[in-house]
Amino acid sequence: MSLILVSLGVLICFFGLTGFAVVIYFGFQARKRTKINDKDGKKTNLEILIIVNYLSICLSAFGLIVVIVGMLLS
Fold it and tell me: Rounded to two decimals, what is the model's pTM?
Protein backbone atom coordinates (compact mmCIF):
# COMPACT_ATOMS: atom_id res chain seq x y z
CA MET A 1 0.00 0.00 0.00
CA SER A 2 2.74 2.44 0.93
CA LEU A 3 4.68 1.63 -2.25
CA ILE A 4 1.61 2.47 -4.32
CA LEU A 5 1.10 5.77 -2.49
CA VAL A 6 4.75 6.77 -2.82
CA SER A 7 4.77 5.88 -6.53
CA LEU A 8 1.55 7.80 -7.09
CA GLY A 9 2.91 10.81 -5.21
CA VAL A 10 6.12 10.81 -7.21
CA LEU A 11 4.13 10.63 -10.44
CA ILE A 12 1.91 13.52 -9.36
CA CYS A 13 4.97 15.57 -8.37
CA PHE A 14 6.51 14.82 -11.75
CA PHE A 15 3.41 16.11 -13.56
CA GLY A 16 3.39 19.23 -11.39
CA LEU A 17 7.04 19.95 -12.09
CA THR A 18 6.49 19.33 -15.80
CA GLY A 19 3.68 21.89 -15.73
CA PHE A 20 5.99 24.33 -13.99
CA ALA A 21 8.64 23.80 -16.71
CA VAL A 22 6.00 24.40 -19.39
CA VAL A 23 5.01 27.66 -17.71
CA ILE A 24 8.65 28.78 -17.65
CA TYR A 25 9.09 27.88 -21.33
CA PHE A 26 5.96 29.71 -22.46
CA GLY A 27 6.88 32.66 -20.26
CA PHE A 28 10.17 33.02 -22.12
CA GLN A 29 8.35 32.66 -25.44
CA ALA A 30 5.89 35.41 -24.45
CA ARG A 31 8.78 37.64 -23.43
CA LYS A 32 10.40 37.17 -26.84
CA ARG A 33 7.24 38.43 -28.53
CA THR A 34 7.22 41.77 -26.69
CA LYS A 35 7.71 43.69 -29.94
CA ILE A 36 3.99 43.45 -30.61
CA ASN A 37 2.04 46.22 -28.88
CA ASP A 38 -0.95 43.99 -28.14
CA LYS A 39 -1.43 44.74 -24.44
CA ASP A 40 -4.70 42.79 -24.11
CA GLY A 41 -3.29 39.64 -25.70
CA LYS A 42 -0.17 39.82 -23.57
CA LYS A 43 -2.25 40.35 -20.44
CA THR A 44 -4.46 37.33 -21.10
CA ASN A 45 -1.43 35.16 -21.87
CA LEU A 46 0.22 36.14 -18.61
CA GLU A 47 -3.00 35.57 -16.66
CA ILE A 48 -3.28 32.06 -18.12
CA LEU A 49 0.38 31.38 -17.28
CA ILE A 50 -0.18 32.53 -13.69
CA ILE A 51 -3.20 30.23 -13.31
CA VAL A 52 -1.33 27.23 -14.75
CA ASN A 53 1.62 28.06 -12.51
CA TYR A 54 -0.57 27.99 -9.40
CA LEU A 55 -2.16 24.73 -10.50
CA SER A 56 1.19 23.06 -11.10
CA ILE A 57 2.52 24.22 -7.72
CA CYS A 58 -0.61 22.88 -6.00
CA LEU A 59 -0.29 19.59 -7.88
CA SER A 60 3.34 19.22 -6.79
CA ALA A 61 2.42 20.02 -3.19
CA PHE A 62 -0.38 17.45 -3.26
CA GLY A 63 2.04 14.86 -4.65
CA LEU A 64 4.48 15.64 -1.87
CA ILE A 65 1.73 15.16 0.72
CA VAL A 66 0.86 11.79 -0.82
CA VAL A 67 4.53 10.77 -0.71
CA ILE A 68 4.81 11.76 2.95
CA VAL A 69 1.62 9.88 3.86
CA GLY A 70 2.87 6.83 1.98
CA MET A 71 6.18 6.95 3.84
CA LEU A 72 4.45 7.34 7.19
CA LEU A 73 2.25 4.30 6.53
CA SER A 74 5.22 2.03 5.96
Answer: 0.79
